[in-house]
């Protein structure tokens, strides 16, 4: 007798096919940050599975994520999940030990609960009103917290075509934790240059009265005040500006990350104030 499960048609992936734009090395800043802040959790996990959700028209970002995660967690595995079937077929020849590609969407078609879901430049093409439900769905798929672990991590954000400017939100099973701004310092005029790369949950909130707008305004002021440090290089200027900013904003990292042209801030401080 055939079981009902065997005869049930495959369910449709959750989500919408969008443009597949990607580039080699585009997500290096995000990859390195994940390896630094989540490497220990990945190392401790018995089966450290990471999902590169919406890897796009070519599998580069998934290949690179595996490489960078393995510097921190040698047993990490990456599953690239893409909603456009032709992009899955194009990626499959690149599958190898530790790297697999699957057709699917926000339901996350992997067995068990992954330690990491990375969604870069995916939600940007959805409506702002859809973000909260997608976050909730993805967070519910993460490895749960227990006495030894904070659980899995969802990293969702946006960058420019070649990854010079990048902003992402990190979420745990309990919800949003932090927002990270990361940039190539040599190409930065002022911190608010990063506004055009804010993730979908924040990009429409860069207006007076919203927290992210006040944050970028204060960051620009701190950057201007730190101008004398520019003679020691953009890195020293950034570090000085972030140090000043930390007097008024809950900066969650330290000089070791600031040196990379990064700063991470608690989500609650930047979260949208007015419901839409
Ligand atoms: C702009 S590309 C980003 C590629 C890569 N992540 C990057 O940052 O370079 C967005 C990709 O996400 C895919 N996508 C959109 N919604 C998705 C979903 N719900 N599940 C899986 N993939 C999705 C699109 O089909 C598209 O290929």
Could you characterize what this model shows?
- Residues 1-24 are annotated as: Disordered.
- InterPro entries: SAM-dependent_MTases_sf.
- The chain is an alpha/beta fold and 276 residues long.
- The chain has helices at residues 4-7, 28-44, 60-72, 85-91, 128-141, 200-203, 211-225, 234-245, 255-258, 267-270, and strands at residues 49-53, 77-82, 99-103, 116-120, 153-159, 165-172, 175-183, 262-266.
- Residues 1-6 have low confidence and may be disordered.
- It has 10 helices and 8 strands.
- It has a domain at 11-185 and 250-267: Rossmann fold, CATH 3.40.50.150.
- The chain has an 8-stranded mixed beta sheet.
- The structure holds S-adenosylmethionine.
- Residues 15-22, 26-27, 53-56, 61, 81-84, 87, 105-106, 120-122 line the site of S-adenosylmethionine (SAM).
Topology, pairings included?
Blueprint: H1 4-7, H2 28-44, E1 49-53, H3 60-72, E2 77-82, H4 85-91, E3 99-103, E4 116-120, H5 128-141, E5 153-159, E6 165-172, E7 175-183, H6 200-203, H7 211-225, H8 234-245, H9 255-258, E8 262-266, H10 267-270
Helix pairs in contact: 2-3, 7-8
The structure holds S-adenosylmethionine.
S-adenosylmethionine binds at residues 15-22, 26-27, 53-56, 61, 81-84, 87, 105-106, 120-122.
Region (Disordered): 1-24
Organism: Streptomyces naganishii JCM 4654
Protein name: Methylase
Summarize the structure.
The chain has 276 residues and is of the alpha/beta class.
The radius of gyration computed from the alpha-carbon positions, rounded to a whole number of angstroms, is 19 Å
Kindly provide the name of the CATH class of the domain at 11-185 and 250-267.
Alpha Beta
The CATH superfamily of the domain at 11-185 and 250-267 bears the name Vaccinia Virus protein VP39
Number of helices: 10
CATH topology label of the domain at 11-185 and 250-267: Rossmann fold
Averaging pLDDT over every residue, what do you get?
Answer: 95
Distance between the termini: 52 Å
Strand content: 15-25%
Main sheet specs: 8 strands, mixed
- Tell me roughly what share of residues is in helical segments: 25-40%
Order of helices and strands: HHEHEHEEHEEEHHHHEH
Topology, number of strands: 8
Task: Output the strand order for the largest sheet.
Answer: 3-2-1-4-5-6-7-8
Please tell me the CATH architecture of the domain at 11-185 and 250-267 by its name: 3-Layer(aba) Sandwich
Shape: globular
Quickly give the structural class.
alpha/beta
Low-confidence stretches: 1-6
Bound molecules: S-adenosylmethionine
InterPro entries: SAM-dependent_MTases_sf (IPR029063)
Region (Disordered): 1-24
Protein name: Methylase
Organism: Streptomyces naganishii JCM 4654
């Amino acid at each position: 007798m055939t079981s009902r499960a065997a005869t049930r048609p495959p369910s449709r992936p959750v989500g919408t096919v969008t443009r597949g734009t990607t580039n080699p090395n585009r997500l290096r800043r995000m990859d390195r940050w994940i390896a630094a802040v989540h490497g220990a959790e990945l190392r401790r996990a018995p089966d450290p599975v990471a999902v590169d959700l919406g890897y796009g028209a070519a599998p580069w970002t998934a290949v690179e994520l595996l490489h960078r995660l393995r510097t921190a967690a040698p047993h990490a595995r990456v599953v690239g999940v893409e909603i456009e079937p032709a992009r899955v077929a194009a990626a499959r020849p690149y599958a190898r030990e530790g790297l697999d590609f699957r057709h699917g969407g926000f339901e996350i078609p992997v067995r068990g609960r992954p330690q990491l879901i990375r969604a870069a430049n995916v939600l940007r093409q959805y409506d702002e009103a859809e973000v909260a439900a997608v976050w909730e769905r993805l967070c519910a798929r993460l490895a749960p917290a227990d006495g030894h672990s904070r659980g899995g991590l969802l990293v969702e954000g946006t960058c420019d075509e070649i990854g010079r400017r990048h902003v992402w939100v990190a979420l745990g099973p309990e919800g949003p934790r932090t927002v990270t701004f990361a940039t190539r310092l040599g190409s930065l005029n002022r911190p608010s240059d990063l506004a055009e790369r804010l993730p979908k949950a924040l990009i429409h909130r860069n207006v007076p009265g919203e927290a992210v707008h006040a944050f970028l305004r204060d960051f620009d002021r701190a950057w201007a005040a730190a101008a004398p440090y520019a003679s020691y290089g953009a890195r020293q200027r950034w570090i000085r500006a972030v140090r000043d900013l930390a007097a008024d904003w809950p900066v969650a990292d330290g000089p070791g990350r600031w040196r990379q042209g990064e700063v991470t801030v608690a989500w609650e401080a930047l979260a949208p104030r007015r419901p839409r």
